[in-house]
Amino acid sequence: MTPAIRSGLVTGTLLLFFILIGIYTTFEALTLSGVWLTIQGATASEIAAQLPTATNPQFSRVFTVFAALIAGMLAARRAQTFAAQISSAVIANAIAGAMVAIALIFASALYANKLDVSFVFEKVKAETVAALLFEQPALLGGALWIVVFAAFGALGAALLRGWRALAVAQSLAASTQRSGLTANRVQTILLALAALFLVIAPQFIGVYWNQVLGSIGLFVLLGLGLNIVIGFAGLLDLGYVGFYAIGAYTIAVLTSPAYPFQWGFWLALPVAMVAAAIAGTLLGIPVLRLRGDYLAIVTLGFGEIIRIIYKFNPLTGGPQGILNVAPPTFTIPFVNYTVAFNSSTPFWYLIFFTCIVVAFIALRLNNSRLGRSWTAMREDEDAAEAMGVDTTRIKLLAFGSGAFFAGLGGAIYASRQQHIFPDDFTLLVSINALALIIIGGLGSIPGVIIGSIVLIGLPEVLRPIADYRLLAYAALLVVMMLVRPAGLIPAARQRREFRERDPELEVLESS
Amino acid sequence: MATILSAKGVTKRFGGLTAVDSVDFEIEEGSIVSLIGPNGAGKTTFFNCITGYYTPEEGLIQFQGKPTVGMKMHQITSLGIARTFQNIRLFGNMTALENVMVGQHPRMKAGVIGAITHNKATREEEARVTTHGRELLRFVGLRGKENNLAKNLSYGEQRRLEIARALGTEPKLLLLDEPTAGMNPQESLAMVDFIRKVRQEMNVTILLIEHHMRVVMTISERVTVLDFGVKIAEGSPQQVQQNPRVREAYLGSSEMHI
Ligand SMILES: Nc1ncnc2c1ncn2[C@@H]1O[C@H](COP(=O)(O)OP(=O)(O)OP(=O)(O)O)[C@@H](O)[C@H]1O
Ligand SMILES: [Mg+2]
Predict the structure, then answer these.
(1) Smallest Cα–Cα separation from A128: which of A59, A65, A48, A70?
(2) C-alpha distance from residue A329 to each of A228, A247, A263, A341 (Å)
(3) Nearest CA owner, ligand 1 atom 17
(4) pTM
(5) Structural domain spans, chain A
(6) Is the Cβ–Cβ distance between B94 and B202 less than 8 Å?
(7) DSSP assignment, residue B95?
(8) Cβ contacts of B73 on chain A, cutoff 8 Å
(9) C-alpha span between A51 and A70 (Å, rounded)
């Protein structure tokens, strides 16, 4: 069985799976105006009131096209020559298309004979089948599937080819000093524009998107801290959310009127960060000797223990958590203007500023003696120790500084939400933070930012298909690992590692 | 000549196996000494006791008069003992230059604050270490390979990079675990010349584990022989070569091409 055929069978099976679980049925209910209303922040019931309930094939067709493009890319991935890439994409997608076509023709034949397929397969309604067959007679619709899917597969293969050529051109350009400089300048300008946008946009995009931006920013913060532990030092820490919780609870206890302290935000913030850092360092001590998977399992346990302690401790409000966490107060000096932290916009600015500072610190740490010894430890712990690196110390430093930034994120989170519950701090938060740094590129700071946008922002954009968020999430992870194993924006080091292993790039570069 | 390293009654056991059995041993400052013995004789284990990777159950080890047993590996490295590994253990995904710079770690000061503020002292230190790292690479013959990933270097280059990395720690005593393993006779002899050059120009004392007898006989000023963890002979290369116990230990073993 050739790889192309195998690839086609896999794609076909996946597509059938998608049809069976009703992705297409959902997409039919989706309309452009509905999405637009969602983006503007309307609730589900408002949208339902405003829109007629009509089905609409646009989105399902877009989905089909995307599926075909990606399947084509995946099928073409291993082939060497352009012709081979195109042909394997076409073969694979024709097979996948044929599988779907056969199933659809079969289903429509059953419906034609008055047999209700949806009695067994709930989501395969007569209208769905008809829409999937492009409202054509069954045989013609099936043929269309094969042709359309194969054609877009070929396009996907061509896109992949173009993308790779571009990547090679970029790396070649970057390797010559002069164009390297211009590339840098372009990068700086883009960064400045992005920063400007992020400063101005919150004034216009409304409450909902401010909230989303803030959530992305908080995950950037979490990711930056976790990236120090996992990306730089190579310590697989899954209990990271525990330190986020400690930061949040510390600031809550210190500022909420439910407790006798009632400090201000700015006084409590450093205490929260230091408390998280101390907890991070202390929890680092027992796991010093553990490596890899064992470390992951034990730290995972620690994270859960912290959450459970908060959950069952009446002093921290038990499962009800803590209410009325104080917002920051901030008066701009000289003009005596007091910023009211009463909406998500000022919080966004706080988060944005914090992210910049933390990213800067992480960058500096990585490009230093400490960062070098972290990398060395990640590569070979014994050899690093033999070179005079105190691995105990730098491990604790990694745990401690990661937790320090997690505490910062947690404190801002608590203050922004104004209330916290123990179940805000489940394992899923750690997993999300881990997923975003892997998707972005382990050890890469721009990767953390892109990873957060993709993993935290995209699901918000995709809220209309909220039911499939996790599915999309999983699919994205799998596709990512296949297409860009080093992440979206790999760290320079990783880029080198993977480039040198990619035979295709070498072929292209030498030609 | 002063003694740079002395070991008395060093014993290391793994369960029932005594890998190093009350070994007494001394090295004079500035000399080149070989440690030989059949496979599994406990040579690498003895190295690991000196560098602190293992803590011997019994015995005393003194480096420049200072007892080192119980110290951590990185502390012993800072005192001035550096090593290479029998099975090369470079930081494969770091460049050659970065590898040597990690070696210079114990001779640097910058901490967290220095890293974040990137102050003058830190910048100067980084510049100094980078320059010195390049010099070391040139010294071991890896000029022009500074930015190659360690794992992409050839076998011989990797061995040399390991030595450069060890030299980065500015050792007084350099332990080389089978530096000519896997090399043909010509390469081995080139390595002999290179080791002599290292001693001369870097002012270090060298202790090496070696299997190639030609190398041992040409390079060593003294030779110590281990067999089943026990020191069975010691002396000049000629003395050791004529020692009947040594001949017996190597009997049937193809390794002693005398
Ligand atoms: N960590 C360990 N646990 C258990 N046994 C060990 C360990 N390390 C070494 N040994 C055993 O101790 C003995 C000495 O091993 P060592 O590696 O020191 O020998 P060597 O003289 O370096 O041999 P070679 O010439 O093969 O490198 C061997 O029998 C080995 O199996
Ligand atoms: Mg050995």
Answers:
(1) A59
(2) 30, 18, 12, 7
(3) B44
(4) 0.77
(5) 3-166, 208-438
(6) no
(7) B
(8) 382, 385-386
(9) 32
3-state secondary structure of A183: helix
| Residue among A361, A364, A372 whose CB faces B98 most closely | A372
Q: Which residues of B touch A (CB under 8 A)?
A: 51, 53, 72-74, 77-78, 82-83, 85, 89-94, 98, 101-103, 105-106, 108, 110-112, 114-116, 118, 122, 125-126, 149, 152, 165-166, 168-169
Taking alpha carbons only, the member of A329, A443, A441 closest to residue A455 is A441
Q: What is the pLDDT of residues A38-76, one digit of tens each?
A: 666 666 677 666 665 556 677 778 888 888 888 888 888
What is d(CA A287, CA A242) in angstroms, rounded to the nearest whole number?
15
List alpha helices for A331-390, DSSP H.
Answer: 344-366, 369-379, 381-386
Taken as a whole, chain A contains a residue count of 511
Q: What share of chain A is helix, strand, coil (3-state, %, to 5)?
A: 75, 0, 20
User: What does the buried/exposed string (b/e) look like for A119-141 if buried means 16 or more CB atoms within 10 Å of the residue's CB?
Assistant: eeeebbbeebbbbbbbeeebeeb
Query: What pLDDT, in 10s, does the model give residues A324-353?
Result: 888 888 877 777 777 778 788 889 999 999
Q: What is the ipTM for the molecules in this complex?
A: 0.93
- The C-alpha atoms of residue B97 and residue B144 are separated, in whole angstroms, by 10
List for chain B the helix, strand, coil content (%; round to 5): 40, 25, 35
Predicted confidence band of residue A496 (pLDDT cuts 50, 70, 90): low
Report which of A105, A92, A87, A83 is spatially closest to residue A13, judged by C-alpha positions. A92
Q: Which residue has the higher pLDDT, B190 or B254?
A: B190
Q: Which residues pair with B20 in a beta bridge?
A: B12
Helix axes A427-440, A469-483, angle to 10 degrees: 40
In the predicted structure, residue A133 carries a pLDDT above the cut 80 = yes
Over residues B203-249, the pLDDT tens digits come to: 999 999 998 888 999 999 999 999 999 999 999 999 998 888 888 88
From the number of C-beta atoms within 10 Å of its C-beta (0-12, 13-18, 19+), residue A505 rates as middle
Q: In sequence order, what are the residues at sequence separation of 6 or more whose Cβ sits closer than 8 angstroms to the Cβ of residue A366?
A: A232, A374, A443, A445
Counting atoms of ligand 1 from 1, which one is nearest the CA of B48?
18
Q: CA B220 to CA A450: how far, in whole Å? A: 58
| Confidence bin at A169 (pLDDT 50/70/90) | low
Alpha helices in A113-232 (DSSP H): 126-132, 138-175, 177-200, 206-226
Longest dimension (CA), chain B: 65
A462-471 b/e (C-beta count within 10 Å ≥ 16 → b):
eebbeebeee
Q: How far apart are CA B200 and CA B218, in angstroms?
A: 16
Separation CA B58–CA B21 (nearest Å): 9
To 5 degrees, how large is the angle CA A27–CA A32–CA A37?
Answer: 110
